[in-house]
Amino acid sequence: MTLSLSPAEDTCSPVTTHAIGLEAASSVAATLKALSDPLRLRMLSAIASDPRGESCVCDLAELADVSQPTVSHHLKVLKDVDVLTSERRGTWVWYRINPSRRSAVTALLDSFAPASVAPWSSDGEQLRPDFDARVTRLAQELAAEVPELDADVVLTTVRESYTALARTARVTSALVPLTERFARQRLSDLTRDRATAVPQVLFVCVANAGRSQLAAALVNQLAGGRVVARSAGSSPADVIHLHVRSLLAEIEGDTAAERFPKPLTDDAVRAADVVITMGCGDVCPIIPGVRYDDWAVGDPALASREGVEAIRDDIAGRVRALVDDLLP
Q1: Of 25, 208, 258, 301, whose CB is crowded by the most CB atoms within 10 A?
Q2: Does the pTM exceed 0.85?
Q3: Residue 214: is its pLDDT beyond 50?
């Protein structure tokens, strides 16, 4: 017995309406093409995993040994397919994941490279809270306190302060309070009147985690408010050295807990009457009218507790001579 098939059963009938549309397919293909480059994927991963929720082009340039124009080209490719958005602040451009593409980017990176994105902590708390809104609110509060400065200047200062501290922060939950302290100091420097203010000294070392912190604390203790001392680092550490922390507590008491490594800024140098580097090879901007000196003192990071105490004593002797010179 022979079975015969009807024409309808004899032919293939693909359901073309189930396929992605041509326009959508072209858009997806363009996005995938933009992502098919190792450096662009690394940039995307760096931005997606940045605790600030965004990355500066200066940070992304460190991912590979390529020129700045090359970095900008790769970022433009990702921006052209709407994966990234950008915002210029001062001389730098900041990039963040386009909110409408965030879930897609997270799914892509988490599926093919699970270690590259960690949007949630083990206890279910988001690792990337909306810091931008908190930082903006902080800037508005500080702007009301310094009406002599333009609100945009205050906002830029606060955002730059937050970004600089975020580079080395271990715990992001402390970033906003630290940003407030650092920004207040910077705004105070911006509004300082040299003609009427007490002398100001800036101590600079690479990490701002040892000798510069000790020097500033000793000046503030000895001068009793008649001289203001600041400290900063060209490449600040995430925490102050353990032995130095205990010595700062002896010098300043509870106030020592508020000290933390801070990045060197041009406005801190401009506000200073005296800038002192701590024998670590740091180079500061040369500002007319500012006195510069270098103290060749030991590095607490390489010393024992007894060694750090000897370094403190060496700095203390230099500080006494400096304060005597500034307060005839």
Answers
A1: 208
A2: no
A3: yes
